[in-house]
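step 4 of 6: structure.
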Amino acid sequence: MLHKNPHLSMRHISDEDLVRSADGELSSRRAAEVDVHLEACWDCRARMQDIQSTMTDFVRAHHAEFDGQLPPAAGARALLRARLAELGSKSRPGWWKRVVQLELPRVAVIGLPLIATAIGIFWFRQGTLQGSSSTTALFNSEVTPNRSLTPGAAREVAISELCSAPQEQVVADVSVSLRQRVFREYGIANARLEDYEIDYLIAPRLGGAEDIRNLWPEPYSGHVWNARVKDALEERLHEMVCSGQLDLHTAQNEIATDWIAAYRKYFHTNEPLPLNS
Amino acid sequence: MSSTDSINGLAFPTLAGAALEAKPSGIEREVIALYGQFRVPLLRYALSLGLPVHDAEEVIQEAFLSLFRHLQLRRSRANLRGWLFRVTHNLGLKQLYGNQRLDAKTTADWTIAKEQLDPSPDPEEELLSAQRHHRLQAVVRALPENDQRCLRLRAEGLRYREIATILGMSLGAVSISLTRSLARLARADGR
């Protein structure tokens, strides 16, 4: 359509050019032409507004469609940190690798005695590490409950209730008499009570019950697998249950069966992650 | 896409000599910062491909692990956002096609999404806007897959050139696709 008015001395703008203009995807020359036309042409301006309104409506619908599904970022970020740290430690070449790759000929003569010494140190350290692994295993046997005394117990609760209640509302203090019964059950003497806290095996926020079968004396510290590490696992499982990624009964079973194994599984790591991650 | 071969076991290229001097701890921090910046739009795009939430989150994790490798190998830093969307798109489709339980899980995720939508202060307004959203969402889901992806990527702020690269289309095809989709959405909305 051609117009006599000099400002309208071109055809109406096509829908495609209007979309590209709204998106800033026209060449500068064509963008200037479109701007001049839009100043003069109500018809094209109305179409432009419709296009922009449609874009706005779509963006809102797009967000409404998915934003409610987005799980909290904290657990996923901690997992990514752990994976990056693992990847970084695997790919980081040691100084010895550079020597082997770049300077082997020069190093060979003077390096052989050093290499022999290094092998000796390596064997020595391996022995030490194996020793410390055994120690860790001993620690682990203390930081997981006796399954015959503490098999875990859950209460009847709806997932929606678990996921809507703030953390402070679901953590209940264990009564003094129940705490004493747990200590007696585990044969812990009065002198050592201060080294332990009574912890829920299945956390209340995962539906765990205040029941002697779900409580055990957990060491406060001095162990790699301590109560804070278990808290991190509970947080992750809670997030996964509430975002529909994990069935509640599966979460309860796994934490009750072997919480350390569950931690390793859901954080993809053999050792606990730093607590600040 | 060279460094993104599978979801469950990424086959990364071997460490090049150029990376010997890299500082992984600095790169780790950078990747975590980029994760904070782009996780949500990437996750939304992965979900829009039809992935269940858990798989979408896993795809994003893999994309950022690939980014870590990419930066460690001192490859191009130009347009990392476009790079991340491209990797997410490829990994997401691979995961989608390999996912045997997709239909059941997607249905479950839809239910959760509906339950978790933020309530609007005005119930009438909420109902109207929810109805419009559902109508628009239905129209979008009826569009050809490539048109849907064009639209979703544009909604996440990608430029035509980036969309063209991610979807393997020409610039002109992106422009035509968006125009066609917007016209359909406008008709559905009675414009």
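step 5 of 6: annotate
 - Chain B touches chain A through 60 residues (CB under 8 Å).
 - The longest helix of chain B spans residues 24-48.
step 6 of 6: archive
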